[in-house]
Batch of 3 targets.
Target 1
Amino acid sequence: MTAPYPATALEPEVAAPLILALPKGRILAECGQLLLRAGVAPASDYTDEESRRLRFPTDDPALDVVRVRPFDVATFVAFGAAQLGICGADVLMEFDYPEVYAPLDLGIGVCRVSVAEPAGTAGSDDPSRWSRVQVATKYPNIARRHFASRGVHADVVHLSGAMELAPGLGLSRLIVDLVQTGSTLRANGLVETEVIAPITSRLIVNRTALKTQPETIGTWIARFRAALGQ
């Protein structure tokens, strides 16, 4: 008698859960109620910055969440490691991934990308006469595009943080950074001289996932859209 196939060979393959990438920090805290209204209830330690876990189950077996650096959310989604994500428009502007589609403005994480400089030199020179300027920022692409649109070449000093120190220590004349209240600028003797773009957080999806799983991804977009209306 022929041996029967193992039971697992006859069972239908279980689809892997979708991945929703969430950013660590302020936006993670702000999106909590929105997630609940959309029907997403991750494991309780997903907001615990002390937790060593980075991937968390939710009460929906078809969805897991991962917690990553804000700048990395768009990369996870663009390369298909996550099918959905929440990230700031600043990240989308900086990386401009064609693989990422941002169908919803979630209205959280409100801030702006701005130019700032030392209070003592602000307004002392006409920027329209500049041919080049040295800028410290974690947004090199945004900074270069912004100044190039005015015919100014930006020599970028790429920093990951503490941009406010750069002008005082001779690293740059200006900074381009994310500003919420401006208190950190003021505490370091800087003033905001120009707003490049207002920023809010967006729901983003991988375009390939949207094409190959239109019903599933579309349902999640609809759930977040309905959550915004509540």
Target 2
Amino acid sequence: MTHLPDTMSRVIRRDIQDMHAYAVQSSAGMVKLDTMENPYRLPDALRQALGERLGQVAINRYPAERGDDLKAALATHAGMPDDCAIMLGNGSDELISLLSLACDVPGAVAMAPVPGFVMYGMSAALQGLRFVGVPLTAEFELDEAAMLAAIEGHKPSLLYLAYPNNPTANLWDDGVIDRCIEAVGRVKGLVVMDEAYQPFAARDSLARMKRHPHVLLMRTMSKFGLAGVRIGYLMGRRELVTEIDKLRPPFNISVLNAEAGLFALEHADEYGRQAAVIRSERERVFAELAALPGVHPFPSQANMILTRVPDAAGAFSGMRQRGVLVKNVSALHPLLSNCLRLTIGTPDENAQMIAALVASL
């Protein structure tokens, strides 16, 4: 008889056996403010129209031209230059995995400022790339001297720059970013500007992609308002994207997802209205947090606010007991000591979040 643990020990990679899976918190019955989702659904009339449209999709067929239609619509929406190309991913996570796979040459290094999005390091490790994290400053700014030294010393194949960053939610100094991009160009590496939170930010990196052929721009429809649809996209010079796109699984975007994405872009004005409300709420919540004794919110250009409290574990637990779920990020990196990440919800959800935090301090 097969003894499964022995079989697993022999055939499953040891580093995978030693890993922890990406944790998703249970949110049933909670005010869910832990994963930076857009809290708004479509108005009833648009939801009905979307349902009728999805009902007409030929789900008995593999996805084909509809994915191309979505790419064209996203390219127009983003203002992609003519000499660039676009590829779709099942969320940005798949694109990050494909980038690690594409750049997996002997000695390759992936690099990112830390704390940052955990999938940069996880995808690199799973593919066998060495990951180098360069600590931010105490105020979560790029440490220019450390970044430039790390780029020169490690010569990364991939440098990820999240703009705004997750979980710190800030935009970094543009001059420092540009000097890092130029430094990576000198060592013949790629820079991935990850703009997952672009709908909420005052600036973007489209001009950087136009100026630098080694810069790729990655965005997602998740924060746009379609987190459940799982569509990420990567733009860059045509010859570069063509090589990466060879690794994309065929039909990785379902016909239903493609149709939902196209429908959303046709109603981008509604999602733009929602983003404006979220930005306004972000400023109001920030002011209320800043007025609380012992609470320090950090400036945000995303749909979340990183907030330092006297006791993150106690506040998180207390808020959860009061029906509000946020993210305790204090264990992710020493710089995040006693920090909670608070997603911006509806005005009512935000009021419940503030009340739960006050009661839990």
Target 3
Amino acid sequence: MIIWVAEVTAKALGKENTYVATDDKRISDTVRRSGFKSILTSEKAMTGTDRIAEAARTIDADIYINIQGDEPLLDPDDIKKAVAAKKKFPKAVINCMCVLGSDEDPSNPNIPKVITTEDERLVYISRLPVPGSKSIDNYPKTFWRQVCIYAFSGDELNAFSGFGRKGNLERIEDIEILRFLELSIPVRMVKVTSGSKAVDVPEDVRAVETLLRAR
């Protein structure tokens, strides 16, 4: 799965700009045998973004794109959208979102749901089905879910890791992007294509393999 994600990323950013950050030497060795670069990080990273912050200290770049290794169905064009958005909004962290599929349950806690302002600034991400309503007439017809493509500057990553702990909301929801809101760093969401499905639990593997075969 890691190699599949690396190949998708390389289509968007170039193989020379694709790195796999991991604290597991088995993953690092596998990545290198497949011709990709790997950065072996420490075991102390609290989250994937903390790991990216550590890895980014060894790479000189204006923009750092984080693609999580459990997203083998990502579209390379969506990665490019995140890069373009970061260039347009350099003072904001970029994250992606897509419409929740008809076969996906808004109540599933493994799917982070996204609330934004009308101009797509992040208000909140939750594992609960948000937004909610006390009136069935106002109940949302469409839910948006997080897609794990991020774009950061080096300063944003340093601020994130320099916080030194998980923020209260981040800890409760187990959603690391919320730490940026605790730091008053704005986050902008970018709409990307539906069809990506992360492998959050072992039961997701079969569904993802089916989708890959269909492609």
